[in-house]
Amino acid sequence: MPVTEKNILTRLYIVAGLLFLFAMAVLVKLVSIQVVEGEKYRKLAMDRTEKMFTIAPKRGNLYSDDGSLLATSVSRYTIRFDAETVGKKDFEENVKPLSDALAKLFGKTTSHYQQLLRKAKANKNRYALVARNLDYSDYIAVKQFPLFNKGPYKGGLIIEQKIVREHPLGKIAERSVGYERVDENGYYTRVGLEGAFGEYLRGIEGKRLKQKIAKGQWKPIGWDNIVEPQDGYDVVSTIDINIQDIAHHALLGQLEKYNAEHGCVIVMETETGEVKAISNLGRTTDGKYYERLNYAIGESHEPGSTFKLMSMVVALEDKVIDTNTVIDTEKGTYKVYNRTVRDSKHGGYGKITAAKAFEVSSNTAFAKIINNNYKENPEKFVNRLMNMNLHRELGLPVKGEGTPVIRYPGDKGWSGVSLAWMSHGYEVSLTPLQTLTFYNAIANDGEMLKPRLIKEVKEWDKTILKFEKEVINPSICSKETAHKVQQLLKNVVEKKHGTGHGLYSPNFSMAGKTGTTQKNYVSKDPEVMKYISTFAGYFPADDPKYSCIVVIHEPDKSVGYYGADVSGPVFKSVAQKIYASSPLVDEVDVHNAETKNLDEEFQRYFAASNKKYNEVPNVEGMSGMDAVSILENLGMEVEVKGNGKVKKQSIAKGTDLKKVNKIVLELS
């Protein structure tokens, strides 16, 4: 069929119509993209080129009770170079002086930095690393260097800041100080004081805009943040760094001597409940000790003979006995159904008073006292324990408090032998801090206080929140009962038959109770059986200022395992050193206090702290804390590098003090 002019026109109209429809569709889509979906695509484009990053605020400082730093946040800076933003003329004029300045500051050669910068320029590198992990003073210095002083656009200077947490005490109290961490999903892990008081310490995050450059890297835009971060508040804890240092080293020495598995020490101020020291040390596979877990707060275990104080208080309050009631320990064994309670002394103690039974720590006597007087009404015994708050957690702000176990008749695990075994600290479970809280209450004439780890929250010199003494139970027992058991605790140390008499000193007084708990006692294999050695008490014995508990798990049985031998010396060392550093009672003459049983390190400290110096003393070998105390008391400024004991001092011993302003100590 021949193609006519009409047919051609028809086809042209069809093509034109289709093109018009296509153009309209494109126009509609453009309008849709611009108007309807414009925000979505603008955001997508922005996300691919610019992005808002979170800036962590500076976390508040954590202080000891005297204002010494336990944890602080410091800024660390990374310096990078954007070679693309720098003009060729500026680069050539400044590359040599910039390299000279960098070499002088960081101890590398000028050629090293020239090569680095020229390579970045040749490769059009917009994110070349120059230096990382700088402190504030180095960061300020770098900003003033040639070329970099022109800023981020003309000088190519890129500055990245991060906040890191540092602990001036190093490994001492590391677990108690703790940390707060958040993962990529926003879940927090909170440990110790840092975790407990994170709501005050952490501050409010800021915002910083960054631009995406080559290789998926992000470069900050401009000098300033979009939203400035708000620093966290400072928290003042109750920890006394001197007492903390004393407790740490006393515990460490004893763990090493007995090759024990782990242990803890807590020192509490009697009148206020303030925790002045809390040390937790566990053994590694290579035999070293470090702050692994918070045993003092988190580990609930059978307390053994330290629980006899609780049993004695119950029996005295219910008046089923008095301290002069006579109990027949027979031949050192007492059978209840199919279980036999045994005394540590073979053959027993014969007929003794309840007071002496406590002082010699007779298991059979206490099993008889509690079982015979409460077997018809065991609820009465348990109710009295519960009235003294022994079944409740302390409600500490620190996470991970261990759960106490005080079984009630009818509970799973309760049996006809439960009373006899509970009487001397089995079939019950307490953490060291829960046990100490009870002993502290006895020292306080019956007033039970909640252990306190924080004094106040501050912003600079302004107090935001202050924490006061908190009473758990105003009277766990009558003052009459409290005074009776106070004398018994004193007798444990002072009387020759007392289990703690080996700790007695005529120069200062202590009161307390030993405890030696068998672990895995259901096993008949003596190799499997392990021990927990404990000493809990307070000092001075009259008008107590501090209460203290020492718990050491699984000491080497071939060296020793009794509480008086393993944990008792740590208690005595802590008490003795606190006496020596700040006398607690007027009648104590610390200059005449016995030192023959003190460790060699403290003997040097004790001698140095009581000597008038005109010359720089030798502090090598001392703990850093002791050395700083001595030197600062002599008027010197002390700079400390590292942690542990002093291995080197910058000023030689014997140097005239008048010629010395500052001394640097290197610690191992």
TrEMBL record:
Membrane-spanning intervals of the chain: 12-33
Positions of the PASTA domain: 610-668
Keyword Ion transport part of the UniProt annotation: no
Chief site of localization: membrane
Keyword terms, alphabetized: Carboxypeptidase, Hydrolase, Membrane, Protease, Transmembrane, Transmembrane helix
Source taxon at top rank: Bacteria
Compartmental location: Membrane
Protein name as annotated: Transpeptidase family protein
Organism: Arenibacter arenosicollis
